[in-house]
Design a protein that fits this description.
The chain is of the alpha/beta class and about 260 residues long. It has one domain: Alpha/Beta hydrolase fold, catalytic domain (Rossmann fold). The protein contains 10 helices and 7 strands. The protein has helices spanning about 65-80, 90-100, 125-135, 140-150, 155-170, 170-185, 210-215, 215-220, 235-240, 240-250; strands at about 10, 15-20, 45-50, 85-90, 105-115, 195-200, 225-230. It has a 7-stranded mixed sheet with strand order 1-3-2-4-5-6-7, with helices on both faces.
């Protein structure tokens, strides 16, 4: 019997293993800009693609975060990684916490970049409808990206990222993940978790703010710390890749 694993990109062969999960508009390619600043001798990175996204675009599934957790753990087993750290951007922050819930003893540290907390984004019906409209409208995707980066970057860049997201994700997967991070809530399952957590927020992100992180992640994770990235909005890996990669590995290297 042949087992099919999710698509992924791998970088480095160091002893500290790291699995990174992208956001709603992204794919494993989101992390490419970081690799020139990452240390391949100290870290091994896997940039993971959800079913229906990127290198896993043709992989069918239920498109749930519980399925993501199962797929991440299956891949870690395949790689012979008994323990590893997790990095999650935006909705990937919520997805990585499902991995933590499924296998808490296997997680060394967690890093959230503009990361959705375990209580979800707590969107009301109006906001959910706005995001739902972006499923079939690339211009609305671009508008959300432009707003989330502080409405300060070239519109051309937001449009290109939106177009890339359209190509890199299947409609049914993109649509299925939305309600899970928009209105899902499993905060009770992570409350009091002692896993070390580092949260990064962009100073220009209007939604995922330091205040939100303090009211959510800090409430549930007693070992959480926060850093604000200057000159960044919601997409630090694109906006300030070298600064973010440096801060990421500095923290992962701490005992």
């Amino acid at each position: 019997m042949t087992t099919t694993f999710n698509g992924f990109r791998q970088f480095g062969d160091g002893p500290h293993k790291v699995i990174a999960l992208n956001g709603w508009f992204g794919s494993s390619a989101d992390w490419d800009a970081l690799t020139s600043a990452l240390d391949p001798e100290r870290f091994s990175y896997v940039f993971f693609d959800y079913r229906g996204y990127g290198l896993s675009r043709d992989l069918d599934g239920e498109f749930t975060f519980d399925e993501v957790a199962s797929d991440v753990l299956a891949l870690a087993d395949h790689l012979d990684w008994p323990r590893f750290s997790l990095v999650g951007h935006s909705m990937g922050g919520m997805a990585m916490q499902r991995v933590l819930v499924a296998a808490p003893a296997r997680i060394v540290k967690m890093v959230g970049i503009s990361a959705v907390p375990a209580c979800g984004s707590r969107m009301d019906e109006t906001r959910v409808a706005m995001f739902s409209a972006a499923i079939d409208d690339v211009a609305k995707r671009a508008g959300i990206i432009h707003f989330s980066t502080g409405s300060r970057l070239a519109a051309r860049w937001s449009t290109q990222l939106a177009q890339l997201s359209l190509r890199e994700s299947r409609r049914e997967a993109f649509a299925a993940y939305l309600p899970q991070w928009a209105t899902g809530d499993f905060a009770a399952q992570v409350e009091g978790n002692a896993t070390p957590v580092k949260l990064f927020v962009g100073e220009h992100d209007p939604t995922i703010t330091a205040d939100l992180m303090t009211r959510t992640w800090f409430t549930w994770y007693p070992n959480a710390t926060l850093e604000t990235l200057r000159n960044a909005g919601h997409y630090a890996m694109f906006e300030v890749p070298v600064a973010f990669a440096t801060a990421l590995e500095n923290w992962l290297s701490e005992p």
